[in-house]
Structure prediction request, 555 residues.
Amino acid sequence: MGSSSKTKRSISLPCRSHPSAATIEEELNKIKTWKESSTPTAKSISNGLSRLEDLYKCMENFLNLPLTQHALFHHQHEKWIGDLQDGFVSLLDICGTERDAMTQIKEHVRDLQSALRRRKGDSSIETCIAKYTRFRKNAKKDAKKLITAMKQIGNKIEATPLLELDQHVSSVIKVLREAVAGSICILHSLLLFLSVPILKSKPTRRSLVSKLLYKGAVACENHLEEKVNELESVDVALHNLCRSDLSEGDKMQIAQNSLKSLEASIEDVENALECLFRSHPSTVRIEEELNKIKTWESSSTPTAEAISNSLSRLEDLNKCMQDLLNLPLTQQALSHHHHEKWIGDLQDGFVSLLDICGTERDVMTQIKEHVRDLQSALRRRKGDSSIEISIAKYTCFRKNTKKDAKKLIAVMKHMDNKIEATPLLELDQDISSLIKALREVVAASISILHSVLLFLSMPILKSKSTRWSLVSKLLQKGEVACENQENVNELESVDVALHSLCRSDSNEGDKMQSAQNSLKSLEARIEDVENVLECLFRRFVKARATLLNIVSHQL
Prediction:
């Protein structure tokens, strides 16, 4: 008995002691808590789906553990492995079906909203209502079929006997089964939401809700109304449009409010399902990095410092993309489509990015060399002619760089249009999501490398003083940093400082100091940009090589 107790006590310890397993248990407990307190509303289901996504992130870490993979590999031919695989495939199908249903609901809701705004008569609105009602009836039937299928998934996995398995394998199976059970629980709640009875003419079921809707209380704030979900609220609102005991204005307002609420809730559920459907950590991290870049784009200034920060974020994004490309599933998916046009366009895109990144890096090196020549000339102070010769060389270089940058900007626009224009026909959801992620990485790369080109193509300062009068005054006071002039970048500051050297309305010492300060600042910033471009260049080389290897294995 003692021996049995010891064996039982140690069943899950090796697995549970790992942080990934402990985190899975925490997420499963959160799902259980959600189940106990959830209401049949889209908002509650959206919260449940978000928790399920968190569970799958943890489970991915758990499955990547060498011990877990070793345990599963040695039992790959056993029935319970096949049942688990079939279970996850079925859950994937159900998740995709539910996501498509949410999209269709949203489309019907928007049609109804459009009909209400047009107000072309009762017949027009009633036609839209009839279409929506038919869709709801069909969705209800489909949901009930899927509920039956989900019960079979759960029963099949639970019924598989686990004989003569060691404690670690038993623990792995337990974790996977609990993940399936948690998935079934939450996806089942969404199917129940979709299969809610459609409102009929009998008044008993809807009397309370109808009164609340008449008062505009569509949100159902009181505890009693929390059991009325967004679909039911819309049913009541649409039913009321055909009644004669409410004013036209009240009926329209109630319907618009309930449709607006349903649309927002459905969009949340749709987004949560989309994340769950493709919630591999690599794609999630790519999305997070893309959001960081979008935040940068909305708040960036045209300075070398801002560009250096954005290039660092782009490097992080490309690290995540490399992780995605290294996945066996990704490589398998791409290899099966190696002959298609969009693969070739992506390869060409990365080659072009590699060339542009390399060109920008070389330009930064040349700027740095010109800056050092100018600094050397200023230190020697061998007269105005010597300094002016160095300034003339720098100005000539800047003009040529500006021309080259404008040519590259045109190339990048063409590249972006080419990749986006390639149609993706007859592709499954997995490969479509993969292509979307890769295209977004290319688009973000184009955006940030484009900002570098805009920085390089900054107009060169001419003799007219209107554009730089304020900056010139600041430079003469030694305020090269331009703390209150965020839109003045380092190249412009150098232009102003060099231009001031040729003027006679300020002290020679002040002009020299201003020029030295601005050149020192530009040199430091350019070096930062150059270093990040070098790292990014290596990332593009690696991405190109990975894509080439995937395709070449099929040739």
